[in-house]
Amino acid sequence: MRTISNAREQGPTTALLLAAGMGSRLAPLTDDTAKCLVGVSGITILERLLRTLGDHGFTRLVVVLGHESASIQDYLGDRSGNIEISYVTSSCYRTTNNIYSLWLARELIDEPVLLIESDLVFDTTLLDGMLKPDRVAVSRQLPWMNGTTVTFGAEDGVSAFCLGEMSRPDATHYKTVNIYSFSRATWRTIAERLDTYIAAKRTGDYYESVFAEMVADGSLTLRPVLFDADSWYEIDTLEDLAAAEAMFPRYSESMNQAPDQATAEVAG
Question: Which residue has the higher pLDDT, 233 or 10?
Fold first, then answer.
């Protein structure tokens, strides 16, 4: 097991996994199973995450469930190694977006937390830079990537979240990897803002909309951590799965071997 630096004590030992979505673009593999239980080169996405969290000293995992919730609970139980596992279930996962899943977790978490989505595979060493509070994982963009990007300000912090048409495929925009580390105070502030969105019935929004608003008004400050673009993959489609399996052909190599470019915190 890797030795974690003293800075690790300031960061999270609780992880929050959003796993409520149906993963319909990965059908038929997700017709009767949860997206995070799809195998990548013989190892499920969820198992890869559990091993990575265990390697980094995490002791608690909160999972937001929805589609095929029973299969995830059967797979995980209430403990995996040294990791205690808690659940919250979204009864309306078919008609809401990830903002609602994040909001549901607010009553189970009152500590520093690592937020991660359930369709990511990545080299385990990439998580090293996320063990400090108030970080966002980002990557230089490759042709397969789409979705939210961020830009950096003069002090190398995130200056803006760019959604939809605001996102640009150029060198000044970095793709979000959908992994975030929040301090307890930051998480509480985010939860309060989530309350206002849900009260306004904005359950179909993405949580990135909340982050974009908070960065713009100065209530959220995040420092970027650069992930090697060739060492992670977001799996939404069967084509993504094939690409991820080419990138991670075997667990022993894909998760335990350091990438050519080590994780680097953009802000130093």
Answer: 233
